[in-house]
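Follow-up to my earlier ticket, as requested here are the two runs.
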Amino acid sequence: MDLKPIDLTTIQTNTDLTKVKNKAETLNSNTSDNELKEACNDFVSILLAKVFKDMDESINRSGLTEEAYGTKWFRQMVLDEYAKEASKQSLKPLANSLYRDITRSRNR
């Protein structure tokens, strides 16, 4: 099994990442805590979506049957939704840790 490292340069084309990047650039000392928490959750969600996408691409598909027109598109949407829910529930500690680190660095 050939494992590829995650190429972080490929996720820069993602529109969600652009949204988070724009949000992060507008964050300053006057930004509310809720906005910062939301940006941290979005970042964790995008990171996890990239992991899910790489995991999905590593699956060997036999080609025995043809994929329907929207199968790949639908699969990506499902993986994105799984990532959003996981970042809100299971990976909440990661987003909270990121939030604490950012607020600690802002307060210096």
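Run two:
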Amino acid sequence: MQSNGYQTGFGNEFATEALPGTLPVGRNSPQHVAHDLYAEQLTGTAFTAPRYANRRSWLYRIRPAAVHGRFEPFEQPRFHNDFGTGPVTPEKLRWSPLPMPEQPADFIEGLFTVGGNGGPAAASGVGIHVYAANRDMHERFFCNADGEFLIVPQQGRLHIETELGVLDVEPQEIAVIPRGIRYRVTLPDGQALGYVCENFGALLRLPDLGPIGSNCLANPRDFHYPNAAYEDVDGQFELLTKFQGGLWRSDIGHSPLDVVAWHGNYAPYKYDLRRFNVLGSISFDHPDPSIFLVLHSPSDTPGTSNVDFAIFPPRILAMQDTFRPAWFHRNVASEFMGLVHGIYDAKAEGFLPGGCSLHNCMTGHGPDAATFEKASAVDTSKPDYVKDTMAIMFETRAVIRPVAQALDASHRQMDYPNVWMGLRRRFTPGA
């Protein structure tokens, strides 16, 4: 499948057809659909959700989604939602990039769970994963019935063919695949590394802007949704489905990417992080890091997200008489960070592109010793142009429980806590 282009606007009602005359006029499920297709509704929210929050799409396809074989368990032990119930270390954790697999591994086989909280049964929380893949998904399709997949490529492009069309995503872009949509991933560059946030809670949405007004942060027009594109192919294929934390497989004798037309507002989308319109202080001190919020999944507590997706892109720091890197802090929220590109300005070394860190609830963290010394001596009468960087953060209201394979991984940086040990006593009474 090749891309048929994109439609723009976050959460808009779209109508797109790969064959002219496919979409019915004035009704969703006529007795006879054009081209002898089947009408099928894909619903991502409760039927009775308020109109502004309701997400659903009508699909006009060659075969209904119900046409496939029986399910049986499928093993991929590195990708799961078993976050455990025992003690959780409050230690600051950091990992180097996930090594590329020694054997061929596609996008699903290359997923590696770092941690998470909640789960699909509770309809809240997140799973946090990284991936390292070196082959295309061949005769295989994937569907996640548990939650949305927010995919952040770090190295290597992804060609994502979905039921509703094609997303071509490169590093410094993201893709969001809603719950229940079937797709496959191929690798134009032969291999790929990146991050995945699996959202079990309310659908990701743009944050309200409040006093900011009607513009800035991530603007709706910069979100791209695929036009309809389909394939009519028979063969011996495999459908993998993630359901209640487990993987299942079934035989399917045709490509499920057979939607000829669709209309609605429940669909995969992509966004270029380089289009984020950054805000900041032009006098003194820092605004809170919520000004870097791209998307969030709200919770049942007003003002508190199930998960926030924030970025730290190129920007200008102009605050005077201010310590400009992120200050030392302890948060009620828990932070998982990754580096997509360049150097993160609040770390001197060790935080590598493709690597990641986890600072859980109320664990003290902030600039390392080398960064503190450098920032303390900078001339704040001049602006600091932070260039050539892109860091990401998945922030959650619940503790992110690291799983055993991540704690025991050979690419975990066991000496990470030492980066703060050089912060010497500076107290000078009477100075």
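The only thing I checked on run two: The radius of gyration is 23 Å. Let me know what else you need.
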